[in-house]
Amino acid sequence: MIKLVIGSQWGDEGKGKIVDMMAEKADLVVRFHGGNNAGHTVVVNGRKFPFHLIPSGILQKKPIVIIADGVVIDPDVLMEEMAIFEKMGMNLKKKLVISPRCHLIMPYHKELDQAYENARGKNKLGTTKRGIGQVYADKVSYNGIRIYELLNWSLFVEKFKFQTEIKNKILMTFGVSPIKIETYLPIFKKLAEKIRPMVRNTFSIFQKAISQKKQILLEGAHGVMLDNSFGLYPYVTASNVIEGEVNIGSGIPSKKIEEIWGVVKAYTSRVGGGPLPTELFGKTADYIREKGYEYGTTTGRPRRIGWLDLPAVKFACQLSSVNRIAITKIDILSGLSQIKVCLSYKLNGKSSKGRSPPKGDGPLVQTFGRKIEFSHCGYLELEKLTPVYKILPGWKEEITKVRKFNQLPKNCQKYLKFIENYLKIKVKIISVSPEREASMYL
Ligand code: IMP
């Protein structure tokens, strides 16, 4: 059985906790894309574990966790995370596998990410400055350096030197000091020796596991709205986030996936720039941000907050054939007198239906005569749209201790059912607090 967990919004939906729960029975837990721009927090017995690279399933006894081909690795972050688990007494040589095809985030990638953001000035994208866009750009332009090269030291040094010479020229045009590779060679050497026993051909591991009908749990990072092709480019991340990325980033054929779980946070949040149609400001936004501790796991930035945007979530679910929903952080909405949910959008205060297309409205023109769908919009269009909300009554009761659906306040039940009916996909998990056991399976 192969299961996939993906974020259906702008990341930070609470996937880490859902993966941790599901990982209990898994044989393999696999990260297949992204890098340490992702941040997953898992809470076990009151202790918080923030992950960036190592799959969240590592805290469960049974699974082996795999950093597969599509993941990009920052040496410092990997070393730090490994040290945490080793301190806890874990034998990582048995527990962790790393693909030789993973690309390395090099020091110049981080410097360039920062330099581009500075140069963009007020148009900055709000990246995590972890070098993610740059490492993937080098990957597709054949300039990347992988774990494979790292384990062939002289080849690695040669490639590192060559790339650094070129990248230093670019850095200097931004007025940034050049990188000296001697500063970094000891870090890479240490990493190479440390991970050598963990680097294995993940393709054969997966083929064997599939033929033996083992349980494989695929842990998506970020959220579909940040997908490099289908998100609001350029306010996206550099990897693809949708279901098809499983095949590209791990070699596991996506046809083999049986359960595709879309994780939906009960409201919206995002870090970074770009349009967020249901964005909220003022008291309600602050209430949700503080109660939900909506600050970036990776950067600590306060997250932007919005009401649940169902057309966006629906688009995400359609793109990835989501067939099960896990709703997270519903407890954060307790105490609000009313809750809004976005059902559709209007352009300039009017419904688009039946109107002739205004000139220069980009791809949105194709939607005239039909309903405006999230999928038709680029960021220029989305900025002009206003959400059409359904207002639902809230509930006062705190629900973090509730473990049965019918013990939830009636209005909370109605809210959850409303989401299910809109998406036409069964809600199968409801999470009511960060703790591992604070969830209900339906
Ligand atoms: P990058 O991935 O660091 O290049 O950042 C590109 C955009 O994706 C920025 O808006 C980031 O804030 C956002 N982003 C990347 N990863 C995550 C994530 O795991 N959660 C939320 N936002 C993310």
Question: In brief, what are we looking at here?
Answer:
With 442 residues, the protein is of the alpha/beta class. It contains 14 helices and 19 strands. The strands form five sheets. It has a nine-stranded mixed beta sheet, with helices on both faces.
Could you characterize the architecture of this molecule?
- The protein has a nine-stranded mixed β-sheet, with helices on both faces. It has a three-stranded antiparallel β-sheet with strand order 11-13-12, covered by helices on one side.
- The protein is built from 14 helices and 19 strands.
- The two termini are 20 Å apart.
- It has helices at 15-23, 75-87, 92-95, 107-120, 132-140, 147-150, 153-173, 181-195, 202-211, 245-250, 283-291, 310-319, 379-384, 410-423, and strands at residues 2-7, 28-31, 40-44, 47-51, 64-67, 72-73, 96-98, 103-104, 216-219, 259-265, 268-270, 279-280, 304-306, 308-309, 324-328, 338-347, 385-393, 427-431, 439-441.
- Helix 4 runs parallel beside helix 7 (153-173) and helix 7 packs antiparallel against helix 8 (181-195).
- The model has no long low-confidence stretch (mean pLDDT 92).
- The longest helix is centred in the middle third of the chain and has 21 residues, at 153-173.
- With 442 residues, the chain is of the alpha/beta class.
- 48% of the residues are buried.
- It is globular, with a radius of gyration of 22 Å.
- It binds inosinic acid.
- Inosinic acid (IMP) is lined by residues 10-12, 37-39, 126-128, 130, 132-133, 221-222, 226, 235, 237-238, 271-272.
